[in-house]
Write a structure and sequence with these properties.
Elements: H1 2-6, H2 22-31, H3 49-62, H4 73-81, H5 99-109
Helix pairs in contact: 2-3
Length: 121
Amino acid sequence: MLEVVCGRRPVEPRASPEEVILVDWVFECLERGNILEAIDKKLGTEYVVEEAELVLKLGLLCSHAIAAARPSMTTVVQYLEGTAQLPGNLGDFGGASNEEDVLSTTITSLAISEPFTSTGR
């Protein structure tokens, strides 16, 4: 999903250092409060803002470093159809001191709570 909406590959070796890894770059855009910055410029303004935000955030959630924290395909479809809402705390990093804490926190709240680069995703 991120590749399609951002118009780029998962790894862009020729990109600026902060934009090399797609998932990390989109997450940085989210943290800065401007996730729409990650959208492919070729789309212009021909998209629904709420749908673009949903796809970007869902792409981040589906790319979580901890597999158990990623939503099932059933849940992904529910998010896309609007019958379920994404958790509001996708940008909640920190608070957990080790992977077990991150995993238990993530599964209960579906928070993205660790940098993606730490495990190579």
